[in-house]
Design goal:
By secondary structure, the protein is α+β, with helices and mostly antiparallel strands. 47% of the residues lie in helices and 20% in strands. It has one domain. It has two helices and three strands. Strand 2 and strand 3 form a beta hairpin. This is Peptide chain release factor 1. InterPro entries: Pep_chain_release_fac_I_sf.
Length: 51
């Protein structure tokens, strides 16, 4: 992950997540980050099951 304080941005390059609420994430509001990880995991599992 990248935490860019001047832009108030958090990026998770593994799942293509980017948001401009770094201050909120650091305060514990992780719903967007967690949902991006869950979505990426679900997609990966579905793709693996189709092979």
């Amino acid at each position: 992950r990248t935490y860019n304080f001047p832009e108030n941005r958090i990026s998770d390059h593994r799942v293509g997540y980017k948001a401009y609420n770094l201050d909120q994430v650091l305060d514990g509001e992780l719903d967007g980050v967690i949902q991006a990880l869950v979505d990426a995991d679900t997609k990966e599992r579905l793709e693996a099951a189709q092979q």
